[in-house]
Amino acid sequence: MNHSHLTVDAHTHIFCWGENPAEGFLSRPTQKSLISKLLLRLSGIKKERGETISEKIYHRLFKDLESTELDYIVLFAQDAIYKNGLDIDYHRTHFYVSNNYVLELATRSDKIIPCASINPMRSDSIRELERVRAAGCKLVKIHTAIQGVSPDLPEFEAFYRRAAEIGITLIFHTGYEHSCKVVSQKYTDPRRLARALDQGGNIIAAHCGTCTFWDKEDYYPHFIEMMHRYDNLYGDTAVMAGLVRLNACSKLAKEPEFITNRIIHGSDYPLPSSRIPHRKQVGLFPRYRKNLLDLDLNIKRGYRYGPRYENLILDLIQFEP
Ligand SMILES: [Zn+2]
């Protein structure tokens, strides 16, 4: 199927406060963190209708979906940290959204493409991979830093191979993470994706390995190095229009075509993009500024990445509506 007329945001989040922990939760320290407070305020979620914060987040997402110019969004689950590979470790898990919750939300809107999340350290990781695939899901996210997954470990090879065999594209978080407590930032180095890439499936490095200006390291050069080495590697632009990654969008746009042609649009919604550094692209008061999905899309459109920037993700998952 030809997808070239469609527009997709391939990296968005839903989160749950924790009223129903089976759906998802944020840990106490994460709920109380400055970054969570800022996010609720800057995104306008606080003012949304709903009794609980989870309801407000939910209503905000569905309101934005109604007014957006996007055809689809990819909505991420977020797996936990496990004790001995079996039970959720509530003490060490700071951000959890269950696969079933995201699969359920996808049934409530034609615009939602679900992305499951599986910690490959789970003893049932391959079974869960097959279960979500059977439920129609062709994308799986691994959060290296938050889930404590060093992607280069030999014991994950069977998981990566199975994903490739059943047509699942794996998305790895790359670049330093700041939204909640992490196990190790070192796990976010794109160089650690070699083992997964060697299994032959499609791999997306979320955030293209970018870090903020105050981080000790910058993994963006490692992302570019891996794009030279592997043609089954892709990158998404999530969070790159935020205030703390000032030149990330323009730097990426200057890369050679064989790299920009494998860049995929993603916002990191509901994390807000910043208009000020991108005023040349969208101006200071664009009409769509209240819809964070559309604001991010229009900022990045202004950088003119590859011709398939807005819909390449649909080819990767051989999407059929
Ligand atoms: Zn994200």
Structure description:
The protein is an alpha/beta fold. It has a single domain (8-316), classed as Metal-dependent hydrolases (TIM Barrel, Alpha-Beta Barrel). The protein is built from 14 helices and twelve strands. A hairpin with a 3-residue loop joins strand 4 (82-83) and strand 5. The longest helix has 15 residues, at 53-67. The mean pLDDT is 94. It binds zinc ion. Zinc ion binds at residues 11, 13, 238, 268.
Task: Write a brief caption for the model.
The protein is of the alpha/beta class and 321 residues long.
Structural class: alpha/beta
The CATH superfamily title: Metal-dependent hydrolases
Distance between the termini: 10 Å
DSSP summary: helix tally: 14
Number of domains: 1
Helix content: 25-40%
Compressed to H and E, one letter per element, the order equals EEHHHEEEEHEHEHHEHEHEHHEHHH
